[in-house]
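hiii, so i know i said id send this last week but things got crazy w the move. better late than never?? heres the sequnce for the chain we talked about at the cafe, plus the structure i predicted for it. fair warning i was half asleep when i ran it
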Amino acid sequence: MVELRHSGSSLGSRASSSPMKRDEDASPLIFNDHVLRDDDDDHPRHSFRDRYRSFWSQIYSFFPFLNDDPRFSQHGSRISLLLLLFIAVAGLISFFSILQRLNSPYLCKKDGIVLHCPRVKENPSLWENPFSATTSWKPCAERHDGGMSDLPPENETSGYIFIHAEGGLNQQRIAICNAVAVAKIMNATLILPVLKQDQIWKDQTKFEDIFDVDHFINYLKDDVRIVRDIPGWFTDKSELFTSIRRTVKNIPKYAPAQFYIDNVLPRVKEKKIMALKPFVDRLGYDNVPPEINRLRCRVNYHALKFLPEIEQMANLLVSRMRNRTGSPNPYMALHLRFEKGMVGLSFCDFIGTREEKAKMAEYRQKEWPRRYKNGSHLWQLALQKRKEGRCPLEPGEVAVILRAMGYPKETQIYVASGQVYGGQNRMAPLRNMFPNLVTKEELASKEELAGFRKHVTSLAALDFLVCLKSDVFVMTHGGNFAKLIIGARRYMGHRQKSIKPDKGLMSKSFGDPYMGWATFVEDVVVTHQTRTGLPEETFPNYDLWENPLTPCMCKA
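okay and structure toks below
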């Protein structure tokens, strides 16, 4: 092996081919027996002793206090000593700083709280998204206190608008957000929305039975003027609910902002007060200005707060979920959409006895006769919908997917669901694989829930909050509840996972008789690495409520 060493001679000189010469020309920091023989008559011209003296003479020139020569002044020695001390202290500080940064977390601020943030690559977690993936975006739709209000004087309002928020709690929530946005578009005053009784929910809840009205009005005071009731000068209030002359009924679904300016605003100015009905999904997403979409997020995530008693009860349920094992534990919230109405409306085919299938066919024919027709086309439709991932996941399918993801049998699961179609028999596979399933009825006593049973939407609000605050949220089918939960968790920090199963791919895997468990596990894990609730780039006609990234979140 050839050993190369740099000699003290010029860069252009060649290394000696003699071993003796190579050692003699070696660096002064390399000590060996030969170079130490400085009394040899044949010693080379540049002896070790000469180089040794030359080396230290350079050191003395920088640090004269090391030299005993009296020619060096006392003043220069003091300066050099101070310089040496400064370099030594700086070196120690740098050394320990580098050591600490390599071996310990650093401090960072998130949501105003100082946290220990890891520097090293994180291992995949069942319960949290990687920290590095949660630092790129932050919420930015909140109200800026101290800013100037662009709200015109009360006497300059275009008029008053009134809406019925139809459907269940979450559909009503979306309608309220849209009503505030439409009032802003038309520079109109919004009358506090009425939560209309729904044929399915059959609930008589009022706005003030669920939401904090004072906070709602005050938080939006610089954006939109909101009043609690119909103005006193409008004497015939029943006319607003029944008269066609006071109702705008031709608003298309996902209408652009310009439609309201061109078609609705002139009627509001003429009549001074108008009702907009129906109002479900009557405002688009990508055809309205970004500041309007940002206002909708401000309403949804900041202005609409549940009543304190609902918040307190939800916090109690969350606390009980986190301490079910006797020590702090994470928990999963599962939104299980497998009620009879959902199964029937899906027109999908599910495992069951002939008797169950016959009863479901009768139910569908009764509830949706125009879609059912004679039933001959439904089998092909069911196959197509399942292939496209448009069928609700059965409880047993959910259990297999969660186990493939790696969640153990001991996982604590909060189930937000109505009455599951098929009862305990249908729930058995899920409960066998995950026995720690609980609902709010099992976490709280009848007395604790008695005050919330007066309104179905109050119970739905409890489910909403417990799912929102869970460590992992899992949806099994679409709907306003799931997309509002996922959207809110994305907006508030997206650290906790929100899992949206790929039902289309799962249906193929479930239908493959040759797929082994190991292959299935790999498919599930790989497929859902990017389906855990991180913000996603938006696209035309995207759903603002599920993914509020572009208008409502900013680069961190």
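btw The first strand starts at residue 106 and ends at 110. thought thatd interest u
miss u guys!!
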